[in-house]
């Protein structure tokens, strides 16, 4: 949350309390399974995770990729059963905390409560973009948009990242996020490289022409252009 506003000492202390406990997860481990009861929420401290749902035919639709600093399982706080599965895409560390801790933050720190709403809306709009892309854009545009999204989220936690980043995903995982097969993803990555928009090697992707890639993807960075002037003042 400190990326969007300057937090007070009291706000930082409240957030740090959420991260007092730590739980390691190995790549592939499931933290929370769809339709299971859950009384905990989590903060992702290290690694890359995903949320997904399983469809009736057994296929998987990845909804979001989750990065350090993200609060996990917030949607589960309002349901008796989790609406999505949370799984580790790399070795991860999460901090579990009880729902009551989130309720306390909302009582004592109204600005942090508003920021939870802000992040939820950013995710909602990003999911709307993904839905529109799945229904109306080409396979190449979907893959291009995902590459830009991953780079921008990684850069939010590591400002040293420019146009070169570790993809950290298999082609199957990219396909499950974009509604494509792994073979089709491979073909689209090759086309993007042939168009001079990206290069690949050693598990890393270089965005060779970021502006052209964004145009090809119809991509909008939803972490930019925010208007947060309405946020309540922090309590002293």
From TrEMBL:
- Keywords in UniProt for this one? DNA-binding, Transcription, Transcription regulation
* InterPro entries documented for this protein: cNMP-bd_dom, cNMP-bd_dom_sf, Env_Response_Regulators, HTH_CRP, RmlC-like_jellyroll, WH-like_DNA-bd_sf, WH_DNA-bd_sf
Q: Name one GO molecular function term.
A: DNA-binding transcription factor activity
Specify the HTH crp-type domain's residue ranges: 137-211
Annotated SUPFAM superfamilies? cAMP-binding domain-like (SSF51206), Winged helix' DNA-binding domain (SSF46785)
Top-level taxon: Bacteria
What Gene3D superfamilies is this protein classified in? Jelly Rolls, Winged helix-like DNA-binding domain superfamily/Winged helix DNA-binding domain
Q: Looking at the UniProt record for this protein, which Gene Ontology cellular component terms does it annotate, in alphabetical order?
A: cytosol
Query: Can you tell me which residues the record assigns to a coiled coil?
Result: none
User: What PANTHER family does the entry give?
Assistant: CRP FAMILY TRANSCRIPTIONAL REGULATORY PROTEIN, REGULATORY PROTEIN YEIL
State the protein's name: Crp/Fnr family transcriptional regulator
């Amino acid at each position: 949350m400190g990326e969007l506003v300057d937090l007070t000492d009291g706000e930082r202390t409240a957030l740090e309390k959420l991260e007092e406990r730590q739980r390691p997860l190995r790549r592939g481990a499931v933290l929370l399974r769809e339709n299971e009861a859950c009384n905990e929420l989590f903060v992702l401290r290290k690694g890359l995770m995903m949320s997904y749902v399983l469809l009736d035919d057994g296929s998987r639709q990845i909804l979001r990729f989750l990065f350090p600093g993200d609060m996990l399982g917030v949607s589960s706080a309002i349901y008796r059963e989790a609406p999505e599965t949370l799984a580790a895409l790399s070795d991860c560390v999460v901090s579990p905390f009880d729902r009551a801790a989130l309720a306390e933050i909302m009582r004592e720190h109204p600005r942090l409560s508003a920021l939870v709403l802000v992040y939820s809306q950013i995710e909602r709009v990003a999911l709307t973009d993904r839905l529109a892309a799945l229904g109306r854009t080409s396979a190449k545009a979907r893959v291009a948009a995902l590459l830009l999204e991953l780079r921008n989220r990684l850069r939010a936690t590591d400002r040293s990242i420019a146009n070169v980043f570790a993809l950290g995903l298999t082609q199957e995982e990219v396909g499950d996020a974009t509604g494509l097969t792994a073979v089709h993803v491979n073909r689209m990555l090759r086309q993007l490289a042939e168009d001079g928009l990206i290069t690949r090697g050693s598990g890393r992707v270089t965005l060779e022409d970021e502006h052209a890639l964004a145009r090809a993807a119809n991509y909008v960075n939803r972490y930019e252009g925010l208007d947060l002037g309405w946020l309540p003042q922090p309590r002293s």
